[in-house]
From TrEMBL:
This is NAD(P)H-binding protein. PANTHER family: PRESTALK A DIFFERENTIATION PROTEIN A, PTHR43162. Gene3D superfamilies: NAD(P)-binding Rossmann-like Domain. InterPro entries: Ergot_Alk_Oxidoreductase, NAD(P)-bd_dom, NAD(P)-bd_dom_sf. It comes from the Bacteria. SUPFAM superfamilies: NAD(P)-binding Rossmann-fold domains. Residues 8-132 form the NAD(P)-binding domain.
Length: 252
């Protein structure tokens, strides 16, 4: 039995990774800012992080925030992991962090570089956006009477449970470096995904594609955050919506 620490273990991905590893019989410690006994802010590190890592063989690093602080958190995690003798650090990143000049993506890429240079055994898996993220995005965009979306932007969402299963398998294996990306089953236009969400939730909104400008928009429009050759996910966005909002969504 392996002792594994999952950072961000109460989050959308980390919770499922934790459940999977425990189901396989491993001792899993959950680290988050507010969950005892390992309530630790990775950006600050300290004795709490040292206690969480004592005796740990593998770390699965899922903790992340688009509001910033990921690089500081990774720096503290890596330094403390080295002192604790951790043998394997597995990290979840995002497809396109090296293609799309978006601030959060740049931070994720910087964390990848830190991990590669850490001296620890490491594995990095990049995945496309989760279905859950798109639902959250569309929930916000559907509040006004008109649903405005960036024009001509593709997306390739993936089911978070599929990513969790892959990440758990990688964590239990030997360090593998940068592994092949994991993407959802379909590359779709953002407006088609939005219309699927509206149908599934019974909302009526005009969907208006809005052209934008700048390097980041051009990179998204070019599909830098998709991986058509790695469409290994099985669950479509409509299937996710049906499970979440009712089976009627699957008919559209």
């Amino acid at each position: 039995m392996t002792t594994i620490l999952v950072t961000g273990g109460t989050g959308t991905l980390g919770r499922l990774v934790t459940e999977r590893l425990r189901a396989d019989g491993h001792e899993v410690r959950v680290l988050s800012r507010h969950t005892l006994p390992y309530a630790v802010d990775l950006r600050e590190g300290g004795s709490g992080l040292e206690a969480a890592l004592a005796g740990v063989e593998t770390v699965v690093h899922c903790a992340s925030s688009p509001r910033g602080g990921d690089e500081d958190a990774a720096r503290n995690l890596i330094a403390t992991s080295r002192r604790a003798g951790v043998g394997h650090l597995a990290y979840i990143s995002i497809v396109g962090v090296d293609q799309v000049p978006f601030g959060y993506y740049r931070s994720k890429l910087a964390v990848e570089r830190q991990i590669e240079e850490s001296g620890l055994g490491w594995t990095v898996l990049r995945a496309t956006q989760f279905h859950d993220l798109l639902v959250t995005l569309f929930q916000g965009l559907a509040k006004p009477p008109v649903m405005a979306l960036p024009a001509h932007v593709p997306d390739q969402p993936v089911e978070v449970a599929e990513v969790a299963g892959r990440l758990a398998d990688l964590a239990l294996a030997a360090p593998a470096g940068r592994v092949a990306d994991l993407a959802g089953p379909e590359v779709r236009t953002l407006d088609s995904l939005a219309r699927a969400y509206l149908r599934a939730t019974g909302r009526r909104r005009p969907v208006v594609p809005v052209p934008l400008f700048g390097k980041t928009y051009r990179a998204f429009r070019a599909g830098g955050h998709t991986a058509p050759d790695r469409a290994l996910g099985k669950i479509t966005f409509e299937e996710h919506l049906a499970r979440r909002f009712g089976e009627g969504a699957a008919r559209f």
